[in-house]
Amino acid sequence: TAVAPALIGEEWCSGQVIITSPRRVAARAAAERMAELLGEKPGETVGYLTRMDSRQGPKTRILVVTEAIFVNRIVQDPELTGVSAVLFDEAHERHLDSDLGLALALESRAVLREDLRLVVMSATIDGARFAALLGEQTPVVESEGKAFPLEIKWLGASPDKRIEDAMASAVLTAWREEQGDILAFLPGVGEIERTRERLEAKL
Question: What confidence score (pLDDT) does residue 118 get?
Answer without folding.
Answer: 86
